[in-house]
C-alpha cells in the first residue's frame, strides 16, 4: 500500500449492519451513486430499514440474526 492508497474497511456487525469505513462509492442496482454524508456509513442487511440502503436500527427490534458467529 502506498501513501496515496486509502483503505476501505467493511465490518459485518453481529446481528446488525455492514459498517463501511473509508472512501467507498455506494451505488444502487443501476450504478447510480448514492450520496453519503459521512466517512463511515451503515448498510442495512436485515431488510427492515425504512431508509434503504442505510441502517436505521430496526435490526434491533425485528429479530435479525446474521448467523456469523455472534451468538
Ligand atoms: S441492519 Fe440495521 S436496520 Fe437493517
Topology:
Blueprint: E1 9-12, E2 18-21, E3 40-43
Antiparallel strand pairs: 1-2, 2-3
Bound molecules: FE2/S2 (inorganic) cluster.
CATH class: Alpha Beta
Give me the CATH architecture, please. 3-Layer(aba) Sandwich
Q: What is the CATH topology assignment?
A: Ribosomal Protein L9, domain 1
Instruction: Specify the CATH homologous superfamily.
Output: CDGSH iron-sulfur domain, mitoNEET-type
Counted beta strands: 3
Q: What would you report as the Rg, rounded to the nearest angstrom?
A: 14 Å
Bound molecules: FE2/S2 (inorganic) cluster
Low-pLDDT sequence parts:
none
N-to-C terminal Cα separation, in Å? 35 Å
SSE order, as H and E?
Answer: EEE
Total of domains: 1
Helix fraction by DSSP (H/I, runs of at least 4): under 10%
- Main beta sheet strand tally, sense and closure: 3 strands, antiparallel
Could you list some keywords that capture this structure?
71 residues, mainly beta, Ribosomal Protein L9, domain 1, 3-stranded antiparallel β-sheet, 17% strand, globular, binds FE2/S2 (inorganic) cluster
Q: What's the short version?
A:
This protein has 71 residues and is mainly beta. The protein has no helices and 3 strands. 0% of the residues lie in helices and 17% in strands.
Q: Could you explain how this protein is built, in words?
A:
With 71 residues, the protein is an all-beta fold. It has one domain: 3-Layer(aba) Sandwich (Ribosomal Protein L9, domain 1), CATH 3.40.5. 0% of the residues lie in helices and 17% in strands. It has no helices and three strands. Strands 1-2-3 form a three-stranded antiparallel beta sheet, with no helix packed on it. Strand 1 (9-12) and strand 2 form a beta hairpin. The protein starts with 8 loop residues before the first strand and ends in a 28-residue tail after the last strand. The model has no long low-confidence stretch (mean pLDDT 91). The protein binds FE2/S2 (inorganic) cluster (FES).
Amino acid at each position: 500500500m502506498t501513501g496515496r492508497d486509502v483503505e476501505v474497511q467493511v465490518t459485518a456487525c453481529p446481528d446488525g449492519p455492514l459498517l463501511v469505513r473509508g472512501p467507498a462509492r455506494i451505488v444502487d442496482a443501476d450504478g447510480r451513486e448514492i450520496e453519503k454524508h459521512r466517512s463511515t456509513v451503515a448498510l442495512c442487511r436485515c431488510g427492515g430499514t425504512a431508509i434503504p440502503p442505510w441502517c436505521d436500527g430496526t435490526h434491533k427490534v425485528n429479530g435479525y440474526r446474521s448467523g456469523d458467529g455472534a451468538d
